């Protein structure tokens, strides 16, 4: 396989369309047409990560965090980012970063955290807006089934746990082909009325190009009439964070002791205990201060995240417990998630989980 084929698999799982605007995701270093020898899967790409890739004959690094986040104006080796990029280029190693595209997936970073905590009845904490679109088209009645099936085959009409969803109305359409037209139905210069089915389907925004191609390929008309609307509906299977429930209530201190053990935390900073049992748990891997109010509004008893600042803890307002388990600690299992997914898709070369510990924080 070449690098691009691996990228296609990753982006089918976590489309880059859903990465946050501030992020820098995708192929960051290397040639997409290079044949892959082996791939190293890691949370961060550091100099020692590149050295591990060299040692293990990996010419592709699949990293959760992107090593290039801001712009690079020079490559002189004056900082760790430049040195990493230079070392990768010198050794013909491609680097790919997925980051918030995977954060926003239902089966992504936060689902992995929830799995480790044994949470049930999981839901997205902050469902994403503007990621669902609606296609409306008009098709001769006798061709409606064919067009509908073509749209379904490309992912249109999938809503949550349901597929093949559409709404259909029958009516009469009219048109008059001009002298330059090549009508399948009707005659040039004459108004024609045709019994048509109006088909309406919703679809995830990232599938649009494939769905439109299917529409044009399957539709019998020379000129296809269609409308696309962006919906404000919340996407319940896409977004930041996750909330779920423990199988049974737990004492606050005992629960955090379990969290500390599961995530191998050097320590957990938390707001004041409230003397109430923990049942409903909200999580968000990485820096999650922005979602404190969402966790409160969702009725969480505790919100587990990372990178909370001093004044963030006041936002608990005695409504929930805030717990900072550490940035690395909250996302450490992400590389296992990527490995698990890709190992089911790839058998032509070795996938290797990085041994390098990339946590920059140490504890006494």
Automatic annotation (TrEMBL):
<dbReference type="GO" id="GO:0005737">
    <property type="term" value="C:cytoplasm"/>
</dbReference>
<comment type="subunit">
    <text>Homohexamer.</text>
</comment>
<feature type="binding site">
    <location>
        <position position="331"/>
    </location>
    <ligand>
        <name>a divalent metal cation</name>
    </ligand>
</feature>
<comment type="similarity">
    <text>Belongs to the GTP cyclohydrolase I type 2/NIF3 family.</text>
</comment>
<dbReference type="InterPro" id="IPR036069">
    <property type="entry name" value="DUF34/NIF3_sf"/>
</dbReference>
<keyword id="KW-0479">Metal-binding</keyword>
<feature type="binding site">
    <location>
        <position position="103"/>
    </location>
    <ligand>
        <name>a divalent metal cation</name>
    </ligand>
</feature>
<feature type="binding site">
    <location>
        <position position="65"/>
    </location>
    <ligand>
        <name>a divalent metal cation</name>
    </ligand>
</feature>
<feature type="binding site">
    <location>
        <position position="327"/>
    </location>
    <ligand>
        <name>a divalent metal cation</name>
    </ligand>
</feature>
<dbReference type="InterPro" id="IPR015867">
    <property type="entry name" value="N-reg_PII/ATP_PRibTrfase_C"/>
</dbReference>
<protein>
    <recommendedName>
        <fullName>GTP cyclohydrolase 1 type 2 homolog</fullName>
    </recommendedName>
</protein>
<dbReference type="GO" id="GO:0046872">
    <property type="term" value="F:metal ion binding"/>
</dbReference>
<dbReference type="InterPro" id="IPR002678">
    <property type="entry name" value="DUF34/NIF3"/>
</dbReference>
<dbReference type="InterPro" id="IPR017221">
    <property type="entry name" value="DUF34/NIF3_bac"/>
</dbReference>
<dbReference type="Pfam" id="PF01784">
    <property type="entry name" value="DUF34_NIF3"/>
</dbReference>
């Amino acid at each position: 396989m070449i690098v691009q084929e691996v990228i296609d698999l990753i982006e089918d799982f976590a489309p880059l369309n859903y990465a946050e605007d501030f992020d820098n995701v995708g192929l960051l270093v290397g040639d997409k047409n290079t044949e892959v020898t082996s791939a190293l899967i890691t949370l961060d790409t550091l100099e020692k990560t590149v050295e591990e890739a060299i040692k293990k004959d990996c010419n592709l690094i699949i990293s959760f965090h992107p090593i290039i986040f801001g712009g690079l104006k020079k490559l002189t080796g004056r900082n760790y980012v430049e040195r990493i990029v230079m070392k990768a280029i010198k050794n013909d190693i491609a680097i790919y970063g997925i980051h918030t595209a995977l954060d926003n997936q239902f089966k992504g970073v936060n689902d992995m955290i929830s799995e480790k905590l044994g949470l049930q009845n999981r839901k997205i904490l902050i469902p994403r807006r503007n990621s669902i679109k609606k296609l409306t088209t008009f098709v001769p009645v006798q061709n409606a089934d064919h067009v509908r099936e073509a749209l379904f085959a490309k992912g249109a009409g999938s809503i949550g746990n349901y597929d093949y969803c559409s709404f259909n109305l029958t009516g009469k359409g009219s048109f008059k082909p001009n002298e330059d037209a090549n009508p399948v139905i009707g005659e040039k210069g004459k108004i024609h009325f045709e019994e048509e089915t109006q088909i309406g389907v919703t679809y995830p925004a990232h599938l649009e190009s494939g769905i439109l191609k299917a529409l044009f390929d399957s539709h019998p008309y020379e000129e296809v009439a269609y409308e696309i609307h962006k919906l404000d509906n919340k996407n319940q299977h896409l977004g930041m964070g996750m909330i779920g429930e423990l199988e049974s209530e737990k004492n606050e201190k005992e629960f955090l002791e379990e969290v500390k053990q599961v995530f191998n935390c050097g320590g957990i900073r938390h707001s004041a205990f409230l003397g109430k049992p923990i049942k409903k748990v909200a999580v968000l891997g990485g820096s999650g201060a922005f979602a404190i109010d969402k966790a409160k509004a969702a009725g969480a008893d505790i919100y587990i995240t990372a990178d909370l600042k001093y004044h963030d803890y006041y936002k608990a307002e005695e409504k929930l417990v805030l717990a900072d388990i550490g940035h690395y600690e909250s996302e450490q299992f992400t590389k296992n998630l990527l490995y698990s997914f890709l190992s089911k898709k790839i058998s032509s070369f070795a996938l290797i989980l990085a041994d390098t510990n990339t946590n920059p924080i140490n504890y006494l």
